[in-house]
From TrEMBL:
The keyword Transport does not apply. This is Acetyltransferase, GNAT family protein. It comes from the Bacteria. It comes from Pelagerythrobacter marensis. Keywords: Acyltransferase, Transferase. Pfam families: Acetyltransf_3. PANTHER family: [RIBOSOMAL PROTEIN US5]-ALANINE N-ACETYLTRANSFERASE, GNAT FAMILY, PUTATIVE (AFU_ORTHOLOGUE AFUA_3G00765)-RELATED-RELATED. One of its GO terms (molecular function) is acyltransferase activity, transferring groups other than amino-acyl groups.
């Protein structure tokens, strides 16, 4: 599955992407904000990521710039129990350019198309920028702040939880990308 937004192309990860993925995510400042990626992130982790199959209703994508195909990160819809969860990372050189919001918006369009009615997300409290991205996407804080394990941190850290009703016809705040 492929999806084109204004500036980005979302596509499945291909085996030859492992090196670019490694180059973007092998940064402690990126990995520490993720729950499932280990630190240090090694070449075999990137190879395993691109080789692992994704379930049809829970796709994951390489996020690339549409104008020059430069990889800026990854976004996906993960299955956590009976719930769909949005997850993403953006490589440090691309922070602050609105790519996380644009990629997240595209992933939510795909989630709706796949029939998901609700999606959750969270961010570690020491990563408020991710919370701002979730709010721009229309997520509402649930009020729950819980410890969540982070492979990259090697332990638990407090995370704020969010949810979004995908059946609502409400538009997220489009003022900031």
């Amino acid at each position: 599955m492929f999806h084109r937004s204004q500036r980005l192309l979302l596509r499945p990860p291909w085996p030859e992407d492992w090196c670019e993925i490694l180059g973007g995510i092998a940064d402690e400042g990126v990995v520490r904000n993720l729950a499932r990626a280990p630190w240090p992130y090694r070449p075999h982790h990137a190879r395993e990521f691109v080789a692992s199959p994704a379930a049809p209703r829970f796709p994951r994508f390489v996020v690339a710039r549409a104008d020059n195909a430069a990889m800026v990160g990854c976004v996906g819809i993960d299955q956590v129990g009976n719930t769909a969860e949005l997850g993403y990372w953006i490589a440090r050189p691309y922070w602050g350019r609105g790519y996380a919001t644009e990629a997240g918006r595209a992933a939510l369009e795909i989630a709706r198309m796949l029939g998901h009615s609700r999606i959750v997300a969270s961010h570690f409290l020491d990563n408020p920028a991710s919370g701002r991205v979730l709010q721009k996407l229309g997520f509402a804080a649930t009020g729950a702040i819980r410890p969540r394990f982070s492979c990259g941190r090697g332990g638990e850290a407090l995370a704020a939880e969010y949810a979004l009703d995908l059946e609502c016809e409400c538009e997220p705040d489009m003022r900031a990308a």
